[in-house]
């Protein structure tokens, strides 16, 4: 019996290694992780991306497409049988139906596989036929990605950071007052821990609704089958002068460490550590609209996100041996369709400046990073209007209540420092200008010609950056 188990295990290992070699050499697989920070439009991005890869008439910047080397792209069942499938068809129907609406956000990990049949270029084209390249798109909540930054923090450090941030946020006033009045040196009582965790979870929900980016621990907002478990029943507390055994503070510390070991680390091993390329979406325009503190919060969170990756280059042997590292990381400012194209360069420059320090570290390690402004599904058209003698570059779209309006959000500065400097200095509001935002709905009766996906902004450039070398 023991010998049989051993031989079965050896056989499975050999089969797995053979499958890995076949995959790496004959039908390569690129695993693209897609996540989005607060209100970034991740589901819309993935839906628009898949639709425009299936019908590539609007993808001229994908070089393999421009050269006519992509013969076909089709959807296949995803290889991981334990993950839900990304509901591409349902989301596309929501965006393009008779009463178009934005699709519901995904609340767990999901996956979708696209397979490309591509003719090789150069002298190889005469020696070999078309080859197949698989693209596995892995969708996961941004809150779970942010949790990776917790792995390097102690409970005391995390508590101090969170409580100091809450002092500047009205959404955290109720929890902060309760936490500061609590004596962590007193004996642990389960009911008290549950009340503190519930109040802290309520703060996280309010913070996410207000647009703050650092809503961790992420599973507090998306608990799934962990709801009510001790791993999600803790909260930040000031450290008392004495922490005797069995006290409230020590039990909170134990549960925090348990959350890292039993929730965050398994996610990293099962999904995140296997990713080759990554897209991180951020609503930079929304943060600018909310003010300097929201923009600084987003900048800090994006730097933490980039620090959580294991950047570097993957050789084929490295991949076979399991030493995967993220080779390319794209940070994308979404909702570029809320601006006239004349301002897209300024939005991209702001994103690049926010990432400068972390970007330099990643590129030193061998990863290729990029910043871009885009829209996965374009909801507006551009229009130039005259108001009080001024010519304004606007965008026009349909609001949620059905009205069609033209919006001029204000002018983004050409120098990102005019926004980032006051944000880092803790300014409470912009001194020079305000930046407006409207919530546009998907357009009615969108006309799409055969062979074309839905209108977008720069999805083709994003695809070329992320997987163009594999096509």
TrEMBL record:
Q: Which InterPro entries does UniProt cross-reference here?
A: YcjX-like
Which protein are we looking at? YcjX family protein
Q: Which organism is it from?
A: Fuscovulum ytuae
């Amino acid at each position: 019996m023991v010998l049989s188990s051993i031989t079965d295990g050896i056989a499975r290992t050999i089969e797995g290694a053979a499958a890995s070699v076949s995959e790496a050499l004959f039908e390569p697989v690129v695993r693209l992780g897609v996540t989005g920070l607060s209100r970034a439009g991740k589901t819309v991005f993935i839906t628009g991306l898949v639709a425009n890869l299936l019908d590539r008439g609007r993808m001229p910047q994908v070089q393999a497409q421009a050269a006519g080397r992509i013969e076909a792209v089709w959807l296949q069942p995803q290889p991981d049988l334990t993950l839900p499938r990304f509901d591409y068809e349902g989301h596309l129907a929501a965006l393009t139906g008779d009463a178009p609406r934005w699709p519901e956000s995904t609340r767990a990990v999901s996956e979708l596989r696209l397979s490309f049949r591509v003719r090789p270029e150069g002298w190889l084209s005469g020696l070999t036929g078309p080859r197949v390249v698989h693209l596995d798109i892995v969708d996961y909540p941004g809150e779970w990605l942010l949790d990776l930054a917790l792995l390097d923090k102690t409970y005391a450090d995390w508590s101090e950071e969170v409580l100091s941030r809450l002092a500047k946020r009205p959404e955290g006033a109720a929890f902060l007052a309760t936490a500061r009045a609590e004596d962590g040196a007193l004996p642990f009582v389960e009911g008290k821990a549950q009340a503190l965790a519930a109040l802290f979870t309520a703060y996280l929900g309010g913070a996410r609704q207000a647009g703050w980016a650092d809503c961790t621990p992420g599973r507090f907002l998306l608990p799934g089958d962990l709801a009510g478990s001790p791993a999600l029943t803790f909260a930040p507390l000031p450290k008392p002068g004495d922490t005797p055994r069995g006290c409230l503070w020590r039990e909170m510390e134990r549960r925090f460490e348990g959350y890292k070991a039993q929730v965050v680390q398994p996610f990293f091993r099962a999904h995140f550590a296997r990713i080759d390329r990554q897209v991180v979406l951020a609503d930079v325009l929304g943060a600018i609209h909310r003010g300097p503190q929201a923009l600084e919060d987003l900048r800090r969170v994006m730097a933490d996100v980039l620090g959580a990756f294991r950047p570097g280059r993957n050789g084929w042997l490295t991949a076979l041996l399991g030493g995967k590292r993220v080779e390319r990381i794209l940070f994308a400012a979404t909702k570029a369709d809320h601006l006239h194209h004349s301002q897209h360069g300024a939005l991209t420059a702001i994103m690049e400046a926010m990432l400068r320090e972390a970007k330099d570290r990643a590129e030193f390690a061998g990863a290729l990073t990029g910043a871009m402004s885009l829209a996965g599904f374009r909801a507006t058209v551009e229009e130039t209007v005259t108001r009080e003698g001024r010519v304004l570059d606007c965008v026009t779209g349909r609001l949620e209540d059905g009205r069609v309006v033209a919006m001029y959000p204000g002018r983004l500065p050409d120098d990102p420092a005019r926004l980032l400097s006051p944000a880092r200095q803790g300014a409470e509001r912009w001194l020079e200008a305000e930046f407006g935002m409207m919530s546009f709905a998907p357009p009615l009766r969108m006309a799409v010609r055969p062979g074309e996906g839905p209108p977008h902004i720069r999805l083709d450039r994003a695809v070329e950056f992320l997987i163009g070398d594999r096509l």
